[in-house]
Amino acid sequence: MDALKQLQYLQTLGIPVWVPGDFSPDFFGQRHVVSEAATIADIQTAQADDKPLSVQLSDDTRTLDWDALKARVQGCTDCGLHRGRTQTVFGVGSQNAQVMVIGEAPGADEDAQGEPFVGRAGKLLNEMLRAIGFQREEVYIANIVKCQPPGNRNPQHDEALHCSAYLQRQIELVDPNVIFAVGKVAAQNLLRLDIPIGKMRGNRYSYAPLDIPVIVTYHPAYLLRSPREKRKSWEDLKRLKSLAG
Fold first, then answer.
1. What gap in Å lies between CA 227 and CA 144, rounded to an integer?
2. Of 2-6, 73-77, 206-210, minimum mean pLDDT range
3. Where are the chain's structural domains?
């Protein structure tokens, strides 16, 4: 049952949607209960958005293997982000992963090292994954865009759109059991939703081109600034674990 239909049933029955709070005391803190879910109106409004979900994959792109795809990304000049990059940030991890983590955009550290999720946010992401039994090397990690936006701003819609075909091909090649969308920009671009991440969390979504389940959570950089939200992220991690297989 999709999230919209489920919310309609629950609303008709007068049943609130609760996020349970059986939290891990060693990493995410003490027991806590919250209630936070997208309303039907939120989802209907977002689904009415007519922005294209992705650039259509060409027959050529569909045939690219890992090496060829990486080379295509390294030479890409389709949007203005290429002008300020030190190097592209393609992705890292197991190419046969059960879990694919998708973040927002490379920052300065990622641009310098050519690897997503390094620095403090990357260390926290590693801890989050270890909390549910995954090492960083066991998942595949990529971003919505492959080049650092100037001033570490969020990627614009057209920039994300130009990279979406590359990302879709990465997802096809990995063929994960579940996608972990980390941060508002990642979640909204993957799911073509324009609602706050706090209302997206806790709902079950699917990456439409490939019908892969998507779990939405806060970005580790946000959790470093707002450590109390780690309690909610633990619930997202448990959902991720249940779908990973």
1. 24
2. 2-6
3. 3-244
What is the Cα–Cα distance from 24 to 222, expressed in whole angstroms?
19
pLDDT tens-digit series, residues 177-216: 999 999 999 999 999 999 999 999 999 899 988 999 999 9
The first and second tokens of residue 18, run together, are: 């609760």
From 1, 47, 56, 5, select the one nearest 193 (Cα to Cα): 47
In the sheet that holds 140-143, the strands lie side by side as: 92-93, 140-143, 99-103, 178-182, 212-217, 205-207
Short-list 88, 78, 2, CA closest to 47: 2
Q: In angstroms, rounded to a whole number, what is the distance separating the alpha carbons of residues 221 and 169? A: 27
Name beta bridge partners: 179: 100, 214
What dihedral angle (degrees, nearest 10) is formed by the CA atoms of 192, 196, 200, 201?
Answer: 140
At the topology level of CATH, where does 3-244 sit? Answer: Uracil-DNA Glycosylase, subunit E (3.40.470)
Q: How far is CA 181 from CA 59, 63, 66, 79, 212, in A?
A: 27, 25, 22, 23, 12
Q: Which amino acid is at 241?
A: K
Q: What is the mean pLDDT of residues 75-102?
A: 96
